[in-house]
Specification:
Layout (H helix, E strand, L loop, with lengths): L1 H11 L2 H19 L4 H9 L8 H26 L10 H10 L3 H35 L3 H13 L1 H4 L4 H14 L3 E2 L6 E2 L13 H20 L16 H22 L5 H16 L12 H16 L1 H7 L5 H12 L8 H4 L1 H22 L3 H5 L6 H20 L2 H19 L5 H23 L11 H29 L1
Antiparallel strand pairs: 1-2
Helix pairs in contact: 1-17, 2-4, 2-17, 3-4, 3-15, 4-5, 4-6, 4-13, 4-15, 4-17, 5-6, 5-13, 6-11, 6-13, 6-14, 6-17, 7-21, 7-22, 9-21, 10-19, 10-20, 11-12, 11-13, 12-13, 19-20
């Protein structure tokens, strides 16, 4: 194993590969900054430029775009509450609140540190446990995926805070919105109103841009122009106390991200939501969540970066893409005449280990690139909001239009901007709605497949050991605090 890793670093550290790795992470960061573009589109657009490269060099650059975009999406989430990537949506909840308190530099710094640590942890796990995890992942069928979705739904309780009924109502609304489009089981259109644009469902990124970016701008206009934030430069730096608070969140987020990233189709968005929900459950500072808790930035950022790396486990070991971006990368493998699968580690060791080693190199570059720049990015908040609002609206609508090149995306952003405004005005929690939208299609697909496997009998779930373990975790997540409460009272009494 060590020999293979040394061979990989030897291949990744050549001058050409280092240069293109840097180009990849820089391009990824810029792509992540642009709302709606995202890593999948970025990799697909830049893929033709790599056709004349050596396969390893091309894959290193494309992978750099992938995890670079994860961090780029965080910058706009924190500064202007506009997620550049779907996986950065949950970061906007506490990251933006930190920015409003003059702690944007600390939020961006912990995102960079958390992403780096998560990348290292996931790389170690990837190197040491890729084959066994791949073997475990191949045993994940529809019942196991359904159990994972139930676990994800269990975190809705965490997102709701004290307003559980409102949280459940918003989650239900999110899942109902997710039913728009063609029924995956029967092929029958639902709630499309004969509009061809709705056949593929409501576009997730456009909905998020509307809810978070446009909704926030409309709300701030109603409240009156917010004052620019004039934090001192030293106040933008992360403190030792914040680093200490984030250690556990980064570790837990990394493990959750890695485990979910190994599952084909789970993706880094679900990992970031689940990590946030778990952190809100276990953190000593849970009352600060939603109001600028640094753990609320550290956990999802660690999870989405770990998941991005772990997505390569099923892609490399099984030839099954872990998510949308790795599906495009899988196409790149095939373009270069490389067949991912169980034999890839034996037939192309230099390419596989060189690519894995480049993850470490690329994340070091991201840390060096972004950590010193975090306080500088935060200086954007000194600009009066009167100048920022038109820029945010322009970026949101142009970004939405650029996704599909049609006006439908723009109308979706506008409508959900109004929805976001009213949700803020009436204090309705936004995170459960987003989680419902994320989980809805995945839950429905797994439910339909599981039902088909059991001829309509869902008790098949209880005959599968892995599904049972995951369901037990979901029950623990829901009932754990209530079970622990009497013991806490007893300890206080003593």
């Amino acid at each position: 194993m060590l020999d293979n890793l040394l061979m990989g670093f030897g291949a990744a550290l050549t001058p050409a590969n280092l240069i293109w790795c840097f180009v990849g992470v820089l391009a990824g960061t810029i792509i992540g900054l642009l709302p709606g573009l995202g890593s999948t589109t970025g990799v697909a657009v830049l893929l033709p430029l790599t056709l004349s490269f050596e396969p390893l060099t091309a894959l290193i650059m494309l992978a750099g775009i992938y995890y670079g975009a994860q961090y780029g999406g965080t910058i706009t989430s924190v500064l202007i509450s506009t997620p550049g990537e779907a996986a950065s949506v949950v970061t906007a909840i506490d990251g933006y609140q930190m920015a409003r308190k003059g702690r944007a530099g600390a939020a961006l710094s912990i995102a960079a540190i958390g992403s780096f640590v998560a990348a290292i942890i996931s790389l170690v796990l990837l190197v040491a446990m890729a084959p066994p995890f791949a073997a475990l992942a191949i045993n994940f069928g529809p019942p196991e995926n359904l159990a994972v979705m139930v676990l994800g739904l269990a975190t809705i309780v965490s997102f709701s805070g004290g307003a559980r009924l409102r949280g459940l109502a918003m989650a239900t609304l999110g899942m109902l919105l997710a039913t728009v489009g063609v029924d995956a089981a029967t092929g029958v259109p639902r709630y499309t109103f004969d509009d061809v644009n709705l056949l593929s469902g409501l576009p997730f990124v456009q909905v998020m841009i509307g809810l978070f970016a446009v909704g926030e701008v409309l709300y701030q206009i109603r409240e009156g122009a917010a004052k620019p934030i004039h934090a001192r430069f030293r106040d933008l730096m992360i403190t030792r106390s914040e680093l200490s608070r984030s250690k556990g969140a980064i570790a837990r987020g990394s493990v959750i991200g890695y485990l979910l990233g190994c599952l084909p189709g789970a993706g880094s968005t679900l990992a970031s939501f689940l990590a946030y929900g778990v952190e809100k459950r276990v953190s000593r500072n849970r009352a600060e969540f939603g109001h600028g808790a640094i753990e609320g930035v550290a956990a999802p950022e660690s999870a989405n970066n770990a998941a991005a790396n772990a997505n390569f486990v099923p892609t490399l070991a099984l030839g099954i893409p872990g998510g949308a971006t790795t599906a495009v990368l899988l196409g790149a493998f095939l373009m270069y005449g490389i067949q991912p699968g169980p034999l890839l580690f034996e037939e192309q060791p230099e390419l596989v280990w060189g690519l894995l080693a480049s993850f470490f190199v690329g994340n070091v570059m991201l840390l060096i690139l972004n950590l010193p720049l975090a306080p500088l990015f935060a200086q954007m908040l000194r600009i009066p909001y009167g100048y920022m609002y038109p820029l945010i609206l322009l970026t949101s609508f142009v970004g939405a239009y650029s996704i599909d090149n049609n006006m439908f995306s723009v109308w979706v952003v506008f409508v959900f901007g109004l929805v976001g405004y009213f949700m803020k005005r009436f204090d309705l929690p936004m995170a459960p709605l987003v989680l419902g939208l994320v989980l809805g299609p995945l839950f429905e697909k797994a439910l339909a497949q599981t039902s088909a496997m059991g001829d309509g009998d869902l008790t098949i779930l209880f005959t599968r050991p892995i599904a049972l373990v995951v369901l037990a975790l979901a029950v623990l997540l829901l009932a754990g605090p209530a079970l622990i409460k009497p013991f806490k009272k007893e300890r206080i009494t003593v």
